[in-house]
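dumping this here before i forget
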Amino acid sequence: MPDTIDALGREAVWGLPGSVFVVAGVAAVLFIMAKTMVWGRWIYAVGGRPDAAVRMGIPVSWVLVSVYVISGLCAGIGAVILAGRTDAGSPLFGNLLELDTIAAVIIGGASFLGGRGHLGHALIGALMIGVIRNALNLLNVNVFFQLIVIGVVIVIAVESDVLRNYLEGRVRVMQAGRQS
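structure:
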């Protein structure tokens, strides 16, 4: 790998890996874009209720394409960092990492049904998945059992999200009944 990519993956600044600063920079840019641009509100609207977003005049297909493009860009940045850490490249390196990504976002509190979530919470979820993975590695747990553990974490997080949505709906119905 070129020296720049190796530096991104291996060198540390102030005791922190260079990849931490790359992730923090990308997260800061995305956070600012989501909070200061109308586009950020459109993402939540499209994620929550696409049919309502169409009725509000939001260009749903454009928003979806833009989110997919940014997602692909972030995947490419992650691939470059991983190539720097391993000093090699392979199309199979990211195999099954989508499971960790889904788990991180769901643990971070994003709704599996859409329309709810926060970038900072997703980063905390990613940190938690990293801690779980590291603990499983330190305990010498087989890789296949690690996938099962992460899958169980996803199932528990999704079920808690569904339960939260159900309870919030019940509370809204009860509040509406009291007001009328």
